[in-house]
Design a protein that fits this description.
Length: 139
């Protein structure tokens, strides 16, 4: 599913039963943070414990966006899952470093690296390949 807010684009792809990839582009700020929060909450609601955020097209993020990511990381850990941040732009990566988010939340160079790390945290009995790359449908 693709959603376009005022200055934020969010594309959700279901990678497997436990993992969703959210591609985020544009500006994540006070006007758009709620939209991202809703998309991530929807994924948790549908049983996905591992979220990979592709930040390669995210040009700007303020403290509202940072807060949404911190809350999502906490929610993921509460469900025995995790949040992975992939390919942040230099400005966004610097924000993670200044605030220390990079200490608590894995930051990866690309989506494939993030998916590989997420896959290592999935129990072996999980059937993760059954619904690879299905497009998310918001309820």
């Amino acid at each position: 599913m693709s959603s376009k807010g005022t200055n934020l684009n969010i594309e959700v792809v279901i990678h497997d039963t436990d993992t969703a990839i959210l591609t985020i582009g544009g500006e994540l700020d006070i006007d758009t943070a709620t939209s991202l929060h809703h998309h991530m909450a929807n994924q948790f609601l549908h049983g996905r414990r591992h979220l990979v955020l592709d930040l390669s097209d995210l040009q700007f993020m303020d403290s509202s966006g940072l807060n949404v990511l911190i809350k999502a990381g906490r929610e993921a850990r509460n469900t025995a899952g995790d949040l992975h941040l992939a390919a942040p732009t230099p400005a966004v990566r610097r924000l993670f470093e200044i605030t220390g988010l990079n200490v608590a939340t894995p930051i990866h160079n690309n989506v494939d690296e993030a998916l590989a790390t997420a896959a290592r945290s999935v129990p072996a009995t999980d059937s993760t390949a059954t619904s690879a790359h299905q497009t998310d449908e918001m309820s």
